[in-house]
Amino acid sequence: MEDDKRTIVEQEVEEVANAVGLHVGRVYDWVDTHLLTLESIYQLVAIVATLVLARLLHTQFKRLLQGVSRERTLGPVVQRLVGTVAAISLPVVWAIFLGVAISGFESYGLPIQFLRLVSSLLLAFVAIRVVSIFIPSDYWSQIFSWVAWSVAALNAVGLLDIAIGWLQATGLAIGDVRITAWTIVKGLILVTLLIWMSNAIAAAVERHLAKTEKMNSALRLLVVRLFRMALVFLAIIVTLSAVGVDLTVFAIFSGAVGVGIGLGLRRTVENLIASYTMLADESIKPGDVIEVETVSGPTYGQVRKMTTRYVAVRTRDGTETLIPNEVLMANPLTNWSHSDRPTRRRIPVGVSYDSDVELARKLCLEAAEEVPRVLRDPKPACLMRGFGDSSIDLELRFWIDDPENGVANVASEVMLRLWDKFQRHGIEIPYPQHDLRLRAPASSPEVPKDGAG
Predict the structure, then answer these.
(1) Exposure string (b/e) for 346-385, b if CB count within 10 Å is 16 or more?
(2) Mean pLDDT over residues 407-414, rounded?
């Protein structure tokens, strides 16, 4: 029995040894075929030699780029780009030397699979680091990284051309137009690059216009939006033409697009038109202090942002209310700083008929002048508005030039100071009074008692 068990164990050990030997043999054969050849040794030597040269020369290259990045004449985008390349100077210089080595190997007809593998990975790393600085979103930056590494891997193993051929062969035909998967990929890449360039150009134009004092903020925002929209539209047209799409086929869908806009996109179009209308007539611009009636009640605050769909108003509560553009166009709106910053506030004040009216008016003016936010020019004024049922009606008027800091708080501060002054000088603010006249009831005929008469 023990001999049988020993035999089974020996057989299993022998099978494992044979399997390991088989895999080791395959690895040895691959190394002997691909690495232990004269062409492979040449490539490995070239890889090591280019790395040594890159380590010796990348410091000087880095210093050169750092000096260029400090030039004030360059824009911030170019400075950031040059600074990023300087930070990865070693992979950049190594990739350049590898490119020269690959060209030399190809000219002599030598294999380049290992050189191309290392070069593709280096170029993918450099591209990811350089392009990522222009992608503000982490999500899209990760997508670009995966795409770049995938393309580099396919190119390294020599499958990139095969993958492109498969994408070109996969597609569908719509009438006389054939759309392949490769066409879609090229279109997405091209339109992404063109839209990014459009936004970059529009941002540069916006920065340039911001330095122009002759153009107000509303007109500047309108010009930038129209310019950006034109660039994006041009980018889409160029992309469709570049991938071979006949633009006349879109005439077929014009009726359906019109119906879709009329039904599902009506609100979107209304907000878009309202946005450009408000910017064109300069009724609202960023920085204005507005008050508008909405469904939830009046909203008071400062305009922080204007988009094609809504206006962001920062209220005194510290929150931002997003008001659709069509609501601002359809409802009454008060712009506290439309044409002039100074704003007048009115506070009704009632004093007793027994009070000194001139002293009360003087105290009202003093209370207003003691508040720092109240302007000295125009001066505060206190008018007598009428004789009320219980009081003499006064009205205190004063001006402020910072309505974005609130209007109720400054009125409260003035009234607190006025109350304190009235208390010290004996000025009475009367309660409502009503005179009552009691009249005796009219005499009624005497009612006879029961059983009388």
Answers:
(1) ebebbbbeebeeeebbebbbebbbebebbbeeeebebeee
(2) 88
Round to whole Å and give the CA distance between 81 and 131: 9
**C-beta of residue 361 within 8 angstroms of C-beta of residue 394:** yes
Cα 293 to Cα 277: distance, rounded to the nearest angstrom: 19
Sequence length of the chain is 453
Answer for the pair 190, 239: CB distance below 8 angstroms, yes or no: yes
Reduced 3-state DSSP string for 282-347: CCCCCCCEEEEEECCEEEEEEEEEECCCEEEEEECCCCEEEEEHHHHHHCCEEECCCCCCCEEEEE
Whether residue 224 contacts residue 230, with contact meaning beta carbons closer than 8 Å, is answered with no
H or E element: which one contains 269? helix 266-281
What is the C-alpha separation between 146 and 132, in angstroms, rounded?
Answer: 12
Find the helix or strand (DSSP H, E) in which 450 lies: none
pLDDT digits (tens, 9 = 90+) for 85-125: 888 888 888 888 888 888 888 888 777 777 887 888 888 88
DSSP 389: S
Q: Could you give the 3-state DSSP secondary structure of residue 197?
A: helix
Q: Is residue 286 within 8 Å of 306, Cβ to Cβ?
A: yes
Is the whole model's pTM more than 0.70, yes or no?
no
Question: In the predicted model, what is the mean pLDDT of residues 433-449?
Answer: 65
320 C-beta neighbours (distance < 10 Å), count: 14
Classify the phi-psi angles of 134: left when phi > 0, otherwise alpha if psi is within -120 to 50, otherwise beta. Answer: alpha
Each residue's pLDDT tens digit, 364-399? 999 999 999 998 888 899 999 888 888 899 999 998
Write out the DSSP string of 27-81. Answer: HHHHIIIIISSHHHHHHHHHHHHHHHHHHHHHHHHHHHHHHHHT-TTS-HHHHHH
- CA 405/CA 379 separation, integer angstroms: 20
Q: Give the residue from 155, 184, 179, 182 showing the smallest Cα distance to 168.
A: 182
